[in-house]
Write a structure and sequence with these properties.
single chain; about 75% helix; mainly alpha; elongated; 8 helices
Length: about 180
């Protein structure tokens, strides 16, 4: 019997077909989790690097402030400079390191979850990654949230859950043994 026939064994669809159906449903959202995770890793790494070298930005902003005529814009730039000076303290650097280190770790989990989702392995990790993708970690909520929700909806589908519990599809020769 071919696994792709409509014949059912004990009222259940053939295991290989179920695995392929679940794999087809998780493919696209899994790819998007990988993309979002990698983008999160890149932005978190950039922010982490940036927060430890604020002096050039602060100096540039002071030059811009000096060229501004008195008024609202000059006041806004002055406030931004003060915020940068506060962030450039040891406490501010430690806080930013913890914040961006946490988002870096979460982005790594989202990336791994995308791979787990595509391979139908590690259901709990895939679920955690989908939830983390919903949370706006790097300020990109309008971009990440819909894909995280999509991945979560797909993962909560009973057929997809069952697909995670099945072994990976093998060639037809393996089924004949």
């Amino acid at each position: 019997m071919n696994d792709f026939d409509d014949d059912r064994v004990d009222g259940e669809p053939p295991p290989r077909r179920e695995w392929h159906r679940a794999r087809a449903r998780t493919g696209a959202p899994g790819v998007f989790l990988i993309i979002l995770g990698v983008l999160g890793i890149l932005t978190s790494s950039a922010f982490l690097t940036f927060t430890h070298n604020l002096a050039p930005v602060r100096d540039w902003m002071k030059e811009v402030e000096a060229k501004q005529p008195p008024g609202e814009m000059k006041d806004r730039i002055r406030q931004s400079i003060e915020d940068l000076e506060q962030a450039d303290t040891p406490e501010g650097r430690m806080l930013n390191t913890a914040l961006y280190g946490g988002t870096l770790f979460a982005s790594l989990l989202v990336t791994i979850a995308g791979f787990k989702m595509r391979s139908l392995s590690g259901y709990p990790l895939a679920l955690i990654g989908a939830v983390l993708a919903i949370i706006p970690l790097n300020g990109c909520c309008c971009f990440t949230t819909p894909f995280g929700i999509w991945a979560l909806v797909v993962l909560l589908n009973p057929d997809v859950k069952d697909g995670f519990g099945r072994p990976a599809a093998r060639s037809e020769d393996d089924f004949d043994r």
